Amino acid sequence: MKNIIHISFCAVIGIVLAFSIVKFNGQGDVLSAEKRSIASKPTSITDFQGWDAFFNDRFGYRDQLINLANHIDYDILNKTVKNSKAFKGKDGWFYYIDVADGDNQGDFCKTNLLNADELAIFKADIQENAKWCDDNGIKYLFIICPNKHNVYPEYHILSRPDGITRTDQLLRAFKESGINCIFPLDYLLEKKKTESLPLYYETDTHWNDLGAYYAFEAIKEEIIEMFPDKDFPNIEYKRDVTYSETAGDILPMLNIKEAKSTRISLSPIAGSITDYFVYTKDDEENGVISKGKNDSLPKAVVFRDSFFTAMTQYLSTMFSNVEYNWRRMTEDDKKSILANKPDLIIFESVERHSVTIAKE
Q1: Contact 236, 268 (CB under 8 A)
Q2: Which of 70, 177, 335, 353 is the most exposed place for a label (fewest CB within 10 A)?
Q3: Do the strands 237-244 and 181-182 form a parallel or antiparallel pair, or are they unpaired?
Q4: pTM of the model
């Protein structure tokens, strides 16, 4: 009986290897699910690590076999699924940890603190932007969006150590420079205590529309203080809650096909969002421009990242015109800004990239 089992097992392995060779990927150059380039063919026959990476990225039915392995680990054995990009946390929550993209894990473990020279450079960058705005009579606001693990550390696979964070260092630099910065972490944590719905996507790096709305509430108060003579709209929103098994940017990184995610959308209780503004350009990374229905409201320019995608539907109600740029401000931008003279410039960054909020 044992021999039959051994023979059957070897036969299955042999078939899998045979199909992997037959379907070997010799042409592809990108692993789209994992958002990275595929390993190229080594130039030297003795480059054993290179050949190992080359075959690992190209063997036939690679994605299907990884999906099967993750299904066994994730759904059957309930093991932690983890790679260099992301990992599965507790209770169906997933976290992004790519070191090359902000190093969320280093932030969580507080191993990415800045030294004195790095802090001095950061201080000089934010002071330079603030001075330019002051010199040209333009108000400004810096916004740091909290990392997901800051709001939901309880689902992380590690316990966060005590001590200051890199963001604490940056906020101190803002304070010492006399520059205001909104970091709505405490506000989100307070809302989380009484909120039955999540504020971030379980299977994505970003906050959802509800989390973005609560952050907007904190930002809105600051804008009202900046422009006390303006009559800003006060919009009440209703919620629509659905669920997805395939949404989110983290699942493809782990080759996981399905995991439940809460999808929340907000819309005005009375009327429509188009009663307040319309998008005259909506090309995401290539730029977004909103035109408000009330021309007496201020004009704004925003330099942002992906976290502000969910924010535009709320922030745009506060202005007669907003230009959203998915990048940091450049010298060319300054020329355009002076030509069009907005009332406010917003510099926004997610926490893991906040050291570049003023300059790449």
Answers
A1: yes
A2: 335
A3: unpaired
A4: 0.80
Mean pLDDT score across all residues of the chain? 88
Written as six digits, the tokens of 190 are 């307070």
Which phi and psi angles does 115 have, rounded to 5°? -85, 180
Which residues partner with 88 through β-bridges?
Answer: 94
Is the Cα dihedral 10, 257, 63, 101 positive or negative?
negative
Q: Which are the contacts of 250, defined by CB distance < 8 A and separation ≥ 6?
A: 85, 86, 94, 95, 96, 203, 204, 205
Q: Which helix (H) or strand (E) holds 169?
A: helix 166-177
- Residue 87 — φ and ψ, nearest 5°? -150, 160
**Cα gap 127→142, rounded to integer Å:** 11
Residue type, 160: R
Strands (E), the chain: 30-31, 36-37, 86-88, 94-96, 139-145, 181-182, 237-244, 261-268, 277-282, 288-292, 299-303, 321-325, 344-350
Rounded CA-CA distance 199/119 in Å is 31
Is 290 exposed, middle or buried (CB count within 10 Å of its CB: 0-12, 13-18, 19+)? buried
Backbone angles phi and psi of 7, in degrees to 5: -65, -40
Domain-wise residue ranges, the chain: 1-60, 101-356
Burial of residue 87 (number of CB atoms within 10 Å: 0-12, 13-18, 19+)? buried
236-267 residue pLDDT tens: 999 999 999 998 999 999 989 899 999 999 99
With CA atoms as reference, report the closest residue to 259 among 302, 206, 203. 203
Separation CA 225–CA 222 (nearest Å): 5
Q: Count how many residues are written for the chain.
A: 360
Q: How far apart are CA 94 and CA 85, in angstroms?
A: 11
Rg of the chain over CA atoms, in angstroms?
Answer: 24
Q: What amino acid is encoded at 273 in this protein?
A: I
